[in-house]
């Protein structure tokens, strides 16, 4: 079944350039090169290749994954992002324009996701830039953990773990490290991270029809961020089950995707794929952390939850896990002006759960002073019977109250009063 997708856009051919225009209007620290539509490059407003005295860090690829990568341009992270058309690698000319715009004497690091088009075009641009006298290094990120390693024709795909690599490289560059050292930190980070996703729907490209190839009640495990078919289609499962499956796949000792073993420190990213509510992402995060701690024996040092690398309007999320050490944590915690990098929890965390404070009257009186008298007076018995009759009446009227409330409000009045009434009855039973 296919139907025309609904999009709040103008011309489908202009979505990337109009996105860039809106991005730089929103964030004054960003600019773009005046080369539309062929050249679509977002750069730091304070970084000019002629005077830039740090290593330039550039990433990019096909658009449709926003905020990646343009939303991560800023001091302390990317110096520039090269934007291709939707799900299409940027051209060599566009990549070269970005390199020339921001690369100074310290050189440039290209962080490239492992897709054939990106590797080809960024590689050709790197070679031409070197011939022009620029110092260039390139790091390929392939953090996909969905398919057995030997089945991948082009190797593991680049997924949301690339955002960690961008941040670590950007922080290393901001600290003044040499091009070789920045590239070494980025390469090491790329080897420490694994990612796998699950989707409830496929994405809709601007101007094209939507295809629900999954059908009702199904989910897809290990799909790509361009809507590529995943490792398997399965019946929809509770998020607990989904999280357990994904974690076992990423941390499998048989495939050895990432060098993570019990006792290691890790950082975690729960990444929304574009149409997943924050509530669902937080539920996934809340279930993932204790599983990593209790089932896999890992120390979860940082948790980043949100939409970092999307797939247009795809419903679902991915989980990225990276082995951490103190240097890596310092890079992640280093300040950045990149607009879409989250503020993660750093350092020692206070307990996540604390007792509910009691009102002074309850906290200062003994339980005996609050208990029911052993003998009720006649007026007390009448009051107790009246209370019981009132709460029973409320319980009986729950559905009617909800129905009335639905006509003027949100339809939960009866359920709310039912909860209060049953709590009163339970309290009265303690003294019966």
From TrEMBL:
Spans annotated as Disordered: 339-375
PROSITE patterns reported in the protein's UniProt record: DHAK, DHAL
Alphabetical GO biological process terms: glycerol catabolic process
GO MF term set: ATP binding; glycerone kinase activity
Domain DhaK, first and last residues per copy: 11-341
Keyword Nucleotide-binding listed: yes
A GO cellular component annotation in the UniProt record: cytosol
Keywords attached to this entry: ATP-binding, Kinase, Nucleotide-binding, Transferase
Domain annotation DhaL: ranges: 381-432
Pfam families: Dak1
Family stated for the protein in its record: Belongs to the dihydroxyacetone kinase (DAK) family.
Protein known as: DhaK domain-containing protein
